[in-house]
Design a protein that fits this description.
The protein has five helices and eight strands; from the N terminus they run ββββααβαβαββα. It has 164 residues and is α/β, with parallel strands linked by helices. It has a single domain, classed as Glutaredoxin (3-Layer(aba) Sandwich).
């Protein structure tokens, strides 16, 4: 992954709220996860090409690893909700695909797509990265390590202070 040089959102700032249509007839709302789950938000232009489908299948195969870190995955695409429903059903995806047809939410988050954002359960941005290709988004070990650190920093969940 390449590092974001000029991010639209600074780390440790609250991420912008959104309310978008998601698969399974639901809505994706950042505030619905507040206080409950960490989020990993992947931004992609579309989910129909072979590279995107491979990425989604890989992400689905690692979904339990994300759940172990009290995390939900959102994949935000500029495809319409009908296309997302079709792909989610065809691939049996356990996480929601989110439709941002006009790209307005994506634009509030990032200059470049594909991108990934790791957000703690309070809506604070922990890490972000823009990449050149969709296949580069799934740096699972790095993302999971970040989620592990978030969980360790949570006073109710892990170590509250570090001592030497």
């Amino acid at each position: 992954m390449k590092t974001v040089v000029h991010p639209k959102i600074q780390n440790h700032a609250l991420v912008p709220q959104f309310d978008l249509p998601a698969t399974r007839g639901k809505r994706a709302r950042i505030w619905s996860y507040k206080g409950h789950q960490n989020l990993v938000i992947f931004f992609v232009t579309g989910v129909k090409d072979a590279e995107a489908r491979t990425f989604l299948k890989d992400l689905a195969s690692r979904y339990d690893d994300y759940l172990e870190h009290n995390c939900e995955i959102l994949v935000v695409s500029q495809d319409n909700i009908e296309t997302l429903e079709s792909v989610a059903s065809e691939l049996g995806l356990p996480f929601p695909l989110v439709s941002d047809v006009d790209g307005s939410v994506t634009e509030r988050y990032t200059e470049s797509v594909p991108a990934v954002f790791v957000v703690d359960r309070y809506g604070e941005l922990y890490a972000q990265s823009e990449v050149d290709r969709v296949s580069d988004l799934a740096d699972h070990e790095r993302i999971l390590a970040g989620l592990h650190l978030i969980e360790m920093e949570c006073p109710e969940c892990g170590v509250t202070t570090w001592t030497l």
